[in-house]
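[job 4471] stage=fold_predict status=RUNNING
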Amino acid sequence: LGGDPGHVVRRFRGDPKALTFGPPGPATFPDEYPLDPCRKIIVVEGWTDGAAVPFQYQPVFLLGSPSRDAVERLSVQVSPIVLCLDGDRAGRGELKSVGLSLLRCGRTFGVIVLGGGEDPADLGPNKLERRISSQVDVGSTQDFLRLLSSISLDL
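[job 4471] inference complete, writing structure tokens
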């Protein structure tokens, strides 16, 4: 399995405007747990998906529907961002929501398109590594809308 325990976007000290990235599990760190700017961020939906992320990348979990603050917090990271969300209806909905939010923040990103019902946890690190190397780069809203139209959002 992947080597990085991952990061989850969470509220810092209960303040809804102060978001931080932290390790999985209970919030026990009083200060921000920074992401490594030299490692690509792979955004996944849940813990089991994060376990499939190869060691050289850092998984970030968007547990449930991420808030606008969480996406904005993610958008200011220096690291390249790749969205690798489940290939089911919920994952495709999150892909659309998070992708459009990142674009509104002026951020470019990559997308790993998973087939219907497929998720990163099913692939494992080796297959996911191959998918990461063939990601689709999104530099504009037009690029993203073209990508969305090429995949089925109605599963």
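[job 4471] summary: The radius of gyration is 15 Å.
[job 4471] exit 0
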